[in-house]
Specification:
The complex is a heterodimer of chains A (507) and B (171). Chain A has 507 residues and is mainly α. Chain A is built from 20 helices and two strands. Chain A has one domain. Chain A has a two-stranded antiparallel ribbon with strand order 1-2. The longest helix of chain A has 32 residues. Among the domains of chain B are: 79 residues, NADH-ubiquinone/plastoquinone oxidoreductase chain 6, subunit NuoJ (Four Helix Bundle (Hemerythrin (Met), subunit A), Up-down Bundle); 39 residues. Chain B is 70% helix and 0% strand. At the A-B interface, helix 1, helix 5, helix 6 and helix 7 of A face helix 5 and helix 6 of B.
């Protein structure tokens, strides 16, 4: 390699294309510096600095949506900047902002250091944003590991409770296993695509474009198929699809509630952006759709059935929302299956993710306020009589759960409708029947929760004289504003999709 | 000489790997792992992948096995206090045998991999200089991200293990 070629490669590192990620990285470092520099009484300001920085980045991103690098490859093909990537960047920033808001409420009850939490959330968010734009397996793996390692720490952050530590350990072991599967798949693909004995082999097979060219030239290679299945398995772990969902209930229950929300929404969305990049209409695995479509179809069906049936029997709300999240992963997988034959499908997935973000954070916001000092112990019974004690929280909860269940006219209903229409276009009829049955089952357990909040009254369990139930914290002004905005957006997005809906249909 | 050395190292690393599994003492098992890794490094040397061999020695044999030994000695496990193994369920046994069978089978049949003409394969990253050039030009962004990864990991260790004032840890 000559010096000129090296200079050329270095010149392609367009750092300005990454200004949101760079801002987050610098902000994360600045938080640590502020903690050292500022006197102790000013420390409560630091989370506000973090939130303001994320909000500023989000606004900057939205104003500069059509940036100069849109549609281009930068960093020697490591990254590809697309409109979908921009939308997902905004998604992760919004998720991080809401997670920080919930963390302020939840961390106040725990005797834990605060600043590190925000630092890790910022770094994880930047990693997710890079993941959504990665066009290369090295980039994918590095970003994925950064976000996973950050999440290991966040999950076990409430280290004074056994539940949180147990969740962290379980997540660490299952996460390591899934990373191993993913890496094994990547190495197999790289190895077989680099073999000079095969047509269209490439030394740069980590690049999605090169890999797609190789796969198109070798449509029935056994090792490539094995690699693809292993990569899909690794991603299925991250999104919690059947049969890789076993870690979900324990980890979701043990993790601090804001982290559970972050895991459920942002981490799942990150998995789906990767899946869309690989198995979507122009993805790297497009030539092997005869393999990926049946695998994903079976996975979607099993995920919807398992998630809904398992959620039916739960009494702990964190386990319930975790298992219902599994069924949401199933609905999203249904959309991924449809991408091969429906132009609407990719947009439908993004819309569903946004509706899911709004509804989930509304529900998790209420959960954070209802929870007591023991973060893992949040039972359905604790919600009895919430409507009388705090009508605002109960209303937000009802809107969020209704949107998750897909009740018209809320945003969740439109999300499910878009996904189902695209699945219908793609001709996945029997999968649609399973999904519709799944929706009906999900309404049962979501409404069980709403019923507890509105129509039941709290009676202390017989034989105990202390009321073993945490009293809900009334939300502060910022939290109330955010929760109200989430509930309002869930309703408004159901009626009017605006430019966002246009963007979906014009894609 | 070449095939002889290759076979020697291959047998050596397999024997040591068996030692890792069969040893009752955890320290001995970790040392067997070290020897097994040295054997694999020898394999890489005989395949002329010097960089890979030295990285393996430095990272795995040097750092990771030393870490294992530290942990094992900190925990002070005795080799004799080993719980009896549970009987595996039938499904697990069948699957384990199938996996071993598949492994041996693919070894005998040599799988579907045809050995490529090595002289035509570009040896990217085989020498340290080329590898470093790649790291600092094409893969600069992942290297920077790994810096953040290490920072986050370090912060995590501090947050999850340091003694803070007014924090009652579970015993």
């Amino acid at each position: 390699m000559t010096l000129e070629a090296l200079k050329l490669a270095a010149a392609d590192n367009t750092w300005s294309a990454l200004y949101p990620e760079l801002t987050l990285g610098c902000l994360a470092l600045a938080l640590l510096v502020l903690e050292v520099v500022l006197p102790k009484r000013l420390h409560p300001v630091i989370p506000d600095v973090a939130a303001a920085g994320v909000l500023g980045t989000l606004v900057g991103l939205l104003f500069n949506f059509h940036s100069v690098t849109l549609g281009a490859d930068t960093f020697n093909g490591l990254l590809h900047h697309s409109a979908a990537g921009q939308v997902m960047r905004a998604f992760f920033l919004l998720g991080a902002l809401l997670t920080m808001l919930l963390a302020r409420v939840s961390l106040a009850r725990q005797p834990m250091p605060r600043i590190e939490f925000y630092h890790i959330v910022l770094v994880v968010t930047a990693a997710m944003m890079l993941l959504a734009q990665s066009n290369h397996f090295v980039m994918l793996f590095v970003a994925l590991e950064t976000l996973t390692i950050g999440l290991y720490i966040l999950v076990s952050y409430y280290r004074t409770t056994t539940a949180s530590l147990e969740a962290g350990l379980k997540y660490l072991i299952m996460g390591a296993l899934s990373s191993g599967l993913l890496l094994f798949g990547i190495v197999l693909l790289y190895g077989v695509a680099g073999s000079p004995a095969l047509p269209a082999h490439s030394a740069e097979a980590m690049n999605y474009g090169e890999l797609a060219r190789f796969l198109a030239a070798n449509p029935h290679n056994f090792l490539a198929s094995l690699g693809i299945v292993l990569v899909l398995s690794g991603i299925a772990f991250k999104i919690g699809a059947f049969p890789f969902q076993i870690w979900i209930p324990d980890v979701y229950q043990g993790a601090p509630t804001p982290v559970t929300a972050f895991l459920a929404v942002a981490s799942k969305a990150a998995g789906f952006t990767v899946l869309l990049g690989l198995c979507g209409a122009n993805g790297a695995f497009a030539a092997y759709s005869s393999l990926t479509t049946p695998v994903l179809t079976a996975m979607a069906a099993a995920t919807i059935i398992f998630g809904n049936l398992a959620a039916l029997t739960q009494h702990n709300v964190k386990r319930l929302i975790g298992l219902s999240g599994v069924s949401h992963a199933g609905f999203l997988l249904l959309g991924v299956v449809a991408t091969a034959h429906s132009s609407l499908a990719a947009g439908a997935i993004y819309f569903y993710l946004f509706a899911y973000l709004l509804a989930s954070f509304a529900v998790f916001g209420v959960m954070t306020h209802v929870a007591g000092s023991d973060d893992a112990d949040q039972e359905l019974d604790h919600y009895a009589g919430l409507a009388k004690e705090n009508p605002f929280l109960a209303t937000v909860l009802a809107v969020g759960l209704g949107s998750l269940a897909g009740i018209p006219p809320l945003a969740g209903f439109m999300g499910k409708l878009f996904i189902f229409v695209s699945a219908f276009q793609a001709g996945a009829r029997w999968l649609l029947v399973i999904a519709a049955a799944g929706v009906v089952v999900s309404i049962y357990y979501y409404f069980g929760w709403i019923k507890a909040a509105f129509f039941e009254t709290w009676t202390p369990p017989a034989g105990s004289d202390t009321p073993a139930r945490p009293t809900p914290t009334p939300p502060g002004m910022m939290a109330a504003l955010a929760l109200g905005a989430l509930a309002f957006a869930s309703i408004a997005l159901g009626f009017y999709q605006g430019p966002f809906g246009q963007w979906l249909t014009l894609r | 000489m070449g095939p002889f050395l290759f076979n020697l190292f291959a047998v050596f690393s397999v024997v040591c790997a068996a030692g890792v599994v069969l040893n009752k003492n955890a320290v001995n098992a970790a040392l067997c792992l070290l020897l097994s890794l040295v054997g694999v490094a020898g394999l890489f040397v005989s395949l002329e992948a010097y960089l890979l061999a030295f990285l393996l020695l430095l990272v795995y044999a040097g750092a990771i096995v030393a870490l294992f030994l530290f942990i094992v000695m900190l925990l002070d496990t005795k080799g004799d206090a080993r719980p009896t193994l549970h009987k595996l369920p039938l499904l697990a046994r069948v699957m384990a045998f199938a996996l071993v069978g598949a492994g041996v089978g693919s070894f005998v049949v040599r799988g579907q991999l045809e050995s490529p003409d090595l002289s035509r394969t570009p040896a990217l990253g085989a020498s340290l200089k080329l590898y470093a050039y790649q790291l600092f030009t094409t893969y600069l962004l992942p290297v920077q991200i790994l810096g953040f990864l290490l920072l986050v990991a370090m912060l995590g260790v501090i947050v999850l293990s340091k003694k803070f004032d007014g924090l009652d840890d579970i015993k």
